[in-house]
Amino acid sequence: MSIPSKYDAQNVESKWYDYWMKHNYFHSKPDSREPYTIVIPPPNVTGVLHMGHMLNNTIQDVLIRRARLQGKNACWVPGTDHASIATEAKVVAKLKDQGIDKNDLTRDEFLKHAWDWTHEYGGVILDQLKKLGCSCDWERTKFTMDEDMSEAVIKVFVDLYNKGLIYRGYRMVNWDPEAKTTLSDEEVIYEEKQGNLYYLNYKIEGGNDTLTIATTRPETIFGDTAICINPNDERFTHLKGKKAIVPLCNRVIPIIEDDYVDVEFGTGCLKVTPAHDENDKMLGDKHNLEVVDIFNEDASLNSFGLHYEGKDRFVVRKEITKELEEKGFLIKTETHINKVGTSERTKAVIEPRLSDQWFLKMEELVKPAIKAVLETGDVKLFPKKFENTYRHWMENIRDWNISRQLYWGHQIPAYFYGDGKEDFVVAETKEDALELAKTKTLNSELQVSDLTQDQDALDTWFSSWLWPMSVFDGVRNPDNEEFKYYYPTNDLVTGPDILFFWVARMVIAGYEYTDERPFENVYLTGLVRDKQRRKMSKSLGNSPDALKLIEEFGADGVRVGLLLSSAAGNDLLFDEALCQQGKGFGNKVWSAFYLTTLWEVSQDIEQPNSSKIALEWYEAKFQKALIEIEDHFSKYRLSDALMSIYKLIFDDFCGWLLEIVKPAYGQPIDAVTYNKLISIFEENLKIMHPFMPFITEEIWQAMGERSPEEALIVAKWPEQKSVNEALITEFDFASQVVSGIRSVRKDKNIAFKDAIAFSVLNNEQIQPTFDEVIKKLGNLEEVAYVTEAVEGALTFRVKSNEYFIPMSGAIDVEAEINKLTEELNYTEGFLKSVQKKLSNERFVNNAPEQVVASEKKKEADALAKIETLKASLASLK
Predict the structure, then answer these.
(1) Tell me, what CATH number does 629's domain have?
(2) What's the sign of the alpha-carbon dihedral 120, 124, 125, 130?
(3) Residue 541, in any domain of the structure
(4) Strand bridging mode 73-77 / 35-39
(5) Structural contact between residues 615 and 682, judged by C-beta atoms closer than 8 angstroms
(6) Are strands 243-245 and 793-798 parallel, antiparallel or unpaired?
(7) Residue 571 has pLDDT above 80, yes or no
(8) Bridge partners (DSSP) listed for residue 182
């Protein structure tokens, strides 16, 4: 087999991925081995690979490949999430381009378009993960809208409803006017934005008096149903019991009293709009106020908005401000910073809205999940700092709004049969619903056609919170063999931004339905940011094309580049130079392998002592690194584990071991050394493989004929053995000696081909273990031990040991004297110029203190250098 001198990632990566797939290494079935299970955080079905996916899935692949090497039954379940809001938005946009309005379609007609979209784009991101080297069990690929997955979701909804945990309520919810659906509290992101505070005058009924209110939303005056004052505010005693007239619409509204009003904010008079503010709604309920909803579902004004009907709320804000000012109602405007809620998905500004929605009671459900993470440690978060975030969310949890006004998703299994709000039943099928409705109404004449299913879909997270169970059919068939074998899963890798959306909810569902944790460890990655610390996004244009990075640097290079700078829980400041570093590491290892293929191996040569001891040292070094690596893995410090591997192979193996054992130019290497070196190289490949799967498999297979059972992907992880610490310490000292010899050779221009004499004054009582290594790497005639300093020799120290290289024959003395004399003359001239400046009283008295100090340091440095140069010249004469 001809081995190319350069590594070609593009051809190698596709070759070995196809090979792994052909031999079914990724697929798992229950057997007698210890299972190791990961479920993928399902990316959106509409998604494409971005840097966050790259980081997250690289980490999962490292963990699954290592588990496979450890002999565990490794199972990594892939899949995608139907992503109700995001997918429906894309389908609506596509239909719009075709001149089709979603509102003109029936639910079934729309869903056909959604499924067409899903079938066309749904597998894109999973195919892209293959380019990264992800060793998922593709035969197990799941989609949250698969029939069995959907059945599990509906089953859980019905069960929770029957337990009294799901209820329907008319509440103030977060409304996304772009997606035209409600959102849970967790899907709203609050951002501080600069807006205005508008001061408006309202006339008092029956006179010429006025009162002034301050509002950030003048367009909502059409929904005002009261003005509220604090009963203890003496400024407004005269307003008690009176009524005010709303500007423009001239609606007469009561002036009510409540100590909810902050006398310090604004004017002390509060406009109350119960349909469009949660706090106003509470006031409205308390004082029996009318509720006037002024918005359509897209946040344009309805008929209550008079001549602004049909216009967007922000357009109206500009126009009504102008009208109020022209008509004398607007007194003044001030800039004002306030928190504005935006949709996590569409980025639209949220509208508070009253509507009938489905809610899940959370207060009791969360208790086992709080205990598992914060008390017993059954579920561990890495890094631990996220426990505080988890605690805050879970201990301040509110009921979960689980209904969405969307077609794409799991349709809520509630069936209405009458005119009243309570005229419904909840069941897994329409047939079951009919029987329940007959029982509830005592009407045996009811027909299926009399039932109308709720049009809303369930929140996407209501399906993904079942993911670790439902991918193994654990909800529908909890006693099945696979569920009992693979569940609970082992590790979950995800971003901290969905710690509550997904992670916490999976823990809640796990304890509710299995009385077990869904996973043991949660590794929370950082977010991928650019060098300016900005979160990578399409809108900012700062996110590189993931597939182009793989094309340029190879998948192994990109994986290493991401992981080397990605400590758990800390954001990654991404730079393409990191991928270049990863590619460079791969090239270094390939060059090391290529070098070994150039050597002729001889059975007739005796193993040199230098090679023997060097191989023993590297084995000790490898074992010590292996302990570090295992410790890093146990703490989910994958970046540190990779760095330990990187230093071991780059510095110790490529930098030292190969240099020691390689034969002289044109000479063969002894078979004992060669065979041991290749065995060590194979151990290196095993610990590299989880991080750099492609290049390691390529080298492994190129080392000799291997059967499919002998592929690196299913090799055996190295065993831990005792560590010879003394050998490591002795080599560290010897390496400093070699560095000292090389520095002298470079400084004195002594050609490496010329062997030199060498003596050591062994004050440290160092063992001669590595003398043969020092002799070879320094090209020394011998290593002689002396009891006193050698006169007329070049010297250097390592700790208290002194080393001597006789000058006679080693260097051109005359040339060295000329070089040192020239340097001495220059330094003495420089000293004079500095001392002249320091003898100038005007300079010393007027120059800044640090400038004078700098000049004095230059003087001291020059004096010391002159002394050293003179001593060196004296030793040569």
Answers:
(1) 1.10.730.10
(2) positive
(3) no
(4) parallel
(5) no
(6) unpaired
(7) no
(8) 175
Task: Report which of 394, 835, 400, 778 is spatially closest to residue 610, judged by C-alpha positions.
Answer: 778
Q: Which of 248-252, 678-682, 712-716 has the lowest mean pLDDT?
A: 248-252
Token reading at 686: 């095993």
> For residue 810, what pLDDT band results from cuts at 50, 70 and 90?
low
pLDDT bucket at 137, cuts 50 / 70 / 90: very high
Distance CA 636, CA 647 (A): 19
φ/ψ of residue 246, rounded to 5: -70, 130
| Residue corresponding to tokens 């009938």 | 356
Q: Which of 683, 670, 675 is nearest to 619 (CA)?
A: 683
Nearest to 771 by CA among 608, 610, 607: 610
Give 152-196 as a DSSP string: HHHHHHHHHHHTT-EEEEEEEEEEETTTTEEE-GGGEEEEEEEEE
Cβ(804)–Cβ(783) below 8 Å = no
Query: Residues 255, 302: one domain?
Result: yes
Q: In angstroms, rounded to a whole number, what is the distance separating the alpha carbons of residues 452 and 434?
A: 11
**Token pair for residue 364?**
């009791």
Q: What is the pLDDT of residues 686-712, one digit of tens each?
A: 999 999 999 999 999 999 999 999 999
What distance in Å separates the CA atoms of residue 229 and residue 223, rounded to the nearest whole number?
18
As a whole number of angstroms, the distance between CA 843 and CA 851 comes to 10
Strand partners, 170: 356
Q: Please give the model's pTM, rounded to 2 decimal places.
A: 0.85
Within-domain flag for 687 = yes
pLDDT of 1 over the 70 cut: no
User: Interior CA angle at 688 toward 687 and 694, to 5°?
Assistant: 135
In this predicted structure, the answer to whether residue 568 has a pLDDT above a threshold of 60 is no
User: Of 284, 318, 349, at which residue does a domain stop?
Assistant: 349
Q: Cα separation of 535 and 541, whole Å?
A: 11
Contacts of 380 (CB under 8 A, 6+ apart): 373, 520, 521, 522
Q: What does the alpha-carbon distance between residue 27 and residue 49 come to, in Å, rounded to a whole number? A: 23
Residues 655 and 593 both lie in one domain: yes
Distance CA 357, CA 169 (A): 6
At 435 the three-state DSSP class reads helix
pLDDT digits (tens, 9 = 90+) for 174-190: 999 998 889 888 788 88
Beta bridge partners of 257: 229
- CA dihedral of 379, 385, 389, 390, whole degrees rounded to 10: 10
> Any idea which residue has 């439902």 for tokens?
470
Which whole number is the average pLDDT over 452-476?
A: 96
CA dihedral 325, 331, 337, 340 (to 10 degrees): -50
Judge whether 563 and 59 are in contact, CB under 8 Å. Answer: yes
Query: Is the domain of 776 the same as that of 681?
Result: no
